[in-house]
Design brief:
Arc Repressor Mutant, subunit A, Jelly Rolls, 9-stranded antiparallel beta sheet, 10 helices, about 40% helix, 2 domains, alpha+beta
């Protein structure tokens, strides 16, 4: 006689538990540009980036490390990494953010543009808690044949349509991102093994990011003394609790800027800042630019 499964409504016909790690991928943008100027210095933003240049001439700098960008590699940049970029063929500025370029389209002859410009693919995204709080860094990932095939598809589609994407494009972009980041070494993902109490507080912060969150309140959630919890949080996350909350609030602000037309005043109030000026000071201290410039989109690369 056939044995019926009792808990099939839970999605698993077996009684043996399996533990999966949820990745909440949120796409922010994906573009394929030709760049004549790419002098961007000390950029710090609360989202992931994947860069790929079809031709040589691009350069990334992280502290004292210089990455000469090659077409056979992707460059993955984790959130809150302070880095700089340049296009060696047309380097003019040693500070600030200066970009000139446009979307590549079907009407552009890539062979011609490849000689005079930097052909630059990029996508910005978030992965959700706790993966948006890994250690800052630039990670060089070799382009496998499979990644290369996906990249060719994405860049060709972006030349046809770069505004309203069909489901197929979205799924292939998500698959490309997940495959790319899966090639980063395991040392990057230390935060998935953080203390349960810190993770619980982390999730509470994400769910209540619009509130004014205090050390005492968060410590009480995990039944710890405030000072002990603050020490534990710093040990586990390599950042103070206060700075972490500020980072997450600014990350939320960037997300709101991406998806809405809300004013700076409205966002500062929504995220629990005393006023626009306090919000602007914190925003600039974290990202290196003003919220007005971020909102304008002129910084993007």
């Amino acid at each position: 006689m056939t044995k019926f499964i009792n808990n099939i409504e839970l999605g698993d016909p077996s009684t043996k538990n399996q533990n999966f790690i949820d990745v909440n991928l949120k796409l922010l943008c994906c573009r394929y540009w030709y760049l004549g100027l790419w002098d961007c210095h000390d950029m710090v933003y609360p989202f992931w980036r994947i860069y790929w240049n079809k031709n040589e001439g691009g350069e990334l700098t992280l502290q004292e490390n210089v990455y000469t960008m090659q077409p056979d590699y992707l460059y993955i940049i984790s959130p809150f990494t302070s880095f700089s970029t340049r296009y060696l063929q047309n380097h003019k500025y040693d500070s600030g953010i200066h970009v000139s370029g446009k979307n590549l389209s079907e009407s552009h002859n890539e062979t011609y543009y490849e000689k005079k410009y930097l052909l630059h693919f990029f996508t910005h995204f978030n992965l959700g808690a706790p993966f948006d709080n890994v250690y800052p860094g630039i990670y060089k990932v070799e382009l496998t044949n499979h990644l290369k095939e996906r990249l060719i598809y994405l860049t060709e589609r972006l030349k046809i349509e770069n505004h309203d994407f069909k489901l197929t494009f979205n799924l292939k972009l998500q698959a490309f991102i997940k495959e790319a980041i899966s090639n980063i070494g395991p040392e990057l993902w230390k935060t998935i093994n953080i203390d349960d109490r810190v993770l619980k507080a982390h999730r509470f912060i994400e769910a209540n990011i619009e509130e004014k969150l205090s050390n005492s309140e968060l410590a009480s959630i995990v039944s710890m003394a405030p000072n002990s919890f603050a020490r534990l949080f710093k040990e586990e996350m390599n950042i103070t609790l206060h700075k972490f909350i500020q980072n997450r609030k600014i990350a939320k602000a960037c997300e709101i800027f991406e998806y809405t037309n809300e004013t700076i005043e409205s966002i500062s109030f929504k995220l629990g800042f005393s006023d626009r000026y306090h919000f602007s000071r914190v925003f600039k201290s974290i990202t290196g630019i003003s919220p007005a410039l971020y909102k304008s989109g002129r910084y993007t690369s």
